[in-house]
Amino acid sequence: MRIGIIGGGQLGRMFIQNGLNYGHEFHVLDPDPEAPCSAIAHKFVCADRNDEEAVYQLGIECDVVTIEIENVSISGLKRIRDKGIDVYPQPEILEMIRDKGLQKQFYRDNHLPTADFALINSREEIKDHLHLLPVMQKMRIGGYDGKGVTPLINESDVSTALDAPSLLESWVTDATEIAVLVARNPDGDVKSFPVVELVFNPEANLVDYLVSPARISVDLEAKAREISENLVRKLDFVGLLAVEMFVTQSGEVLINEIAPRPHNSGHHTIEACFTSQYDQHLRSILNWPLGSTVLRSAAAMINLLGERGFEGPVIYEGLSDAISENGVYPHLYGKRITKSFRKMGHVTVLDNTTTDALAKAQRIKEAIRVIS
């Protein structure tokens, strides 16, 4: 099979690495000539992901087309599909998902649990929704990895709020943040992965580390996976969907937002599960049988972020000491230049229990510095 990927980052790189086991050929489009996929793709096109014609021309050479980032040409994907080529996730669903306002409205319309919210077009309109404070303001389109997101705690914060079409989401206090990866193929088969617990870096607003299985009750685990599987069916979605959620102090499980692709919250599955998220995504878009999502081991994953204040050719300090421990699996993304908080790689650690895996991950995190 010849598989097209719009976007050439680390998610695409790991997807290709998995797909090479099956002998597939990968054609990739990305604007960065040194994108992580560029060194291993069979064909690499350097072009804007929103260039309709470039996306179309890459896609019509392929048997199936997928994405590794949401910010792509929807019109290009639709033209590819109109030529009879499978495009997953489906362009209309992708168009809805990448607008955080439409996402939230979909949850409300389909009676899926989510925090209260309001949609605004400008900073001035926030004054009509002060009763919701505190809120997290999120740009409807274009924000990711903490960009285009800002907390609004009280009325004095409104003057520095984002002046753009946005979502105001009621603050869910003291919540545990979790994620579920769920896959669906065109035949309608659905499988979800065990819940992961996410801990965020408060400065970079990126995932600092995750643990799986999550430190929640069996009932909450079942509820989170049921909500995720219900969501993917209601969307009629094909591919892999990452569902980020809050678990409140009262035991509610609320959908935060979703990503229609492999996700940072699933990196650990490469070593920890019988089927990785990348293999499951491949199986789903090719309409193959979905693989077992059972955990083979407790796991933790830490992101390797560029250290604050460093920019230049990357150096991974302490890596040799880290890999001297058993059950430590580094993945470096092939990015030549590091910057403050740039995702440069991740490390998965396996151990007998979640507690042991987390303790080991924290040791590894202290051992490795990404500098220049």
Give an overview in words.
There is one protein chain. The protein is of the alpha+beta class and 372 residues long. The chain has 3 domains: 2-87, Rossmann fold (3-Layer(aba) Sandwich); 116-170, Dna Ligase, domain 1 (2-Layer Sandwich), CATH 3.30.1490.20; 176-371, ATP-grasp fold, B domain (D-amino Acid Aminotransferase, Chain A, domain 1, 2-Layer Sandwich). 25% of the residues lie in helices and 30% in strands. It has helices at residues 10-19, 52-59, 74-82, 91-97, 100-109, 218-235, 269-272, 277-285, 319-322, 354-367; strands at residues 2-6, 25-30, 43-46, 64-67, 86-87, 117-120, 135-139, 149-152, 166-170, 176-184, 190-192, 196-201, 206-212, 239-247, 253-259, 298-305, 312-313, 315-317, 328-332, 337-338, 343-351, 369-371. Strands 10, 11, 12, 13, 14, 15, 16, 19 and 21 form a 9-stranded antiparallel β-sheet that branches. It has a 5-stranded parallel β-sheet with strand order 3-2-1-4-5, sandwiched between helices. A 4-stranded antiparallel β-sheet has the order 6-9-7-8, covered by helices on one side. A hairpin with a 4-residue loop joins strand 12 (196-201) and strand 13.
